[in-house]
Amino acid sequence: MKLLKNQFGKAALIFIGTVMVFGILYPALIYGISHLFFDHQASGSFKETEYGKMSTLAGQSYQDDGYLWGRKQSGEAILKDGKWLWMATPADHAIDDLQYMEQKQSLKEEIQMKNPDADGAVPEELYTYSASGMDPHISYSAAMYQVSRIAKERGISEDVVASIIESESSKDWLSDSSEPLVHVTNVNLKLDELQ
Known about the structure:
By secondary structure, the protein is α+β, with helices and mostly antiparallel strands. The chain is 46% helix and 15% strand. The chain has 2 domains: 2-41; 47-193, no CATH class.
């Protein structure tokens, strides 16, 4: 019995120590360091826009013809504190679900119709949903596919649209893909600055 109490006491000390270190001290240290050195990113990378505050870390659902479209976002609108918010949710479609396959085909046809001057096949990421519900980037080829539509809708040259896309493209050092990624929201904010 004495041995059991002794073991229980040691286990309780280890438990309390672990909770203190990994549950309180470590998160507080990381929080403090991130806000000290990367405050903008740690605070959500928000930008003030004509539409209100917008986080550049989360994908936005642009659908107007004069904007760059990103991955389809799955989610729901909720009313919180008197404001409507869009809450992104992960896509959970089974790839062989008949309804999902029909939805994909319909989206693909709509994108082809909206981009009649685009070269090549519709990039798959434009008619499939974001797995995280938050993708802020698309591939460079998916962005370039939309250049003619955006230019025509805004009455500007394709070169201007392409140069904005180029300025917001970067290589993801975590990815093994050689193709750069394009930040959809930043491109659209820069397009709005032209008006």
